[in-house]
Each structure stands twice: as structure tokens, then as C-alpha cells.
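[Q] Does anyone have a clean C-alpha cell version of this?
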Amino acid sequence: LKMGVGSLKLEVGGYFMLGDRIPGSPPPPPEVADILGVDLAELDYMRDENLLGEGKGIAFGTDFSVDTGDIN
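[A] Here you go.
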């Protein structure tokens, strides 16, 4: 879902997966590591758990971003 009012833009996304071959959880976007000033590998909280399973089950998640444009 994308919405915009003037120079303000909002984007919201999400996913839902159910089944036998669910892919591993991805790390957060690089922008998160940049804001926190840490290496992206440190934020990949599922790196070890992704190696353990066969990918059976349920997965869901959401993300959002806000762009204020040039507000000088």
C-alpha cells in the first residue's frame, strides 16, 4: 500500500506464508544497520535458526517506510 500527501509518502507492505517450504527469515534492511551504526550481520537475528529447520510452518511479517521528501 502506498499513499502520498504533498511531499509526504507512506509505504506499507506485508506477507503471510504457510506450508512445507518456507524460506528463511531475511535480515533487516541495510538502512536499519546504518541508522544504528552496526554491521548488518549483527542484526540478522535468525541466521542460526534458519539453518536448523526444513521450513515447515507459518511465517508472517510487515514493514513500513515514511519519506518526508525535501523539507528544507
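[Q] Thanks! Anything notable?
[A] The two ends are 27 Å apart (CA to CA).
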